[in-house]
What does this fold into?
Amino acid sequence: MSEQRVNGHTVSRLTVHIVWSTKYRYSVLEGDIQKKCRSILIQICDAEGINILKGVVSKDHVHMHIEYRPSQDISSIVKKMKGRSSRRLQQEFPKLHKKYWGRHFWAIGFGCWSTGNITDEMVNEYLEHHRKSNNDTDSFILE
It folds into this structure.
């Protein structure tokens, strides 16, 4: 079984695959900028208690498979990663100001997909074991 996160009163393993791209899909994540972007994202995740399971910094977008605490939410996590990395990359690499004069390095929005070690079918099958013979076929089972 995979490693679970235990905090106070919770036990969890929340994982998600997130993707976001550079504004205008410009291919600017190359060389030192690409390495610095990876370094910044690792620092942010360490500071926020987020485990990086796998990550890829491509020339125009970032993929990350992360594990996070139940008290965190995906939109706040992505907001921190995009905001902090944008600011630091533009400070360290002034040549980015030519392409991103509005100080917006990343495109608006992101994609996210939950991941895990069980499927929807496995959860439904487990819950079906709790159905009594007199229950209806509702999606919410009375045990």
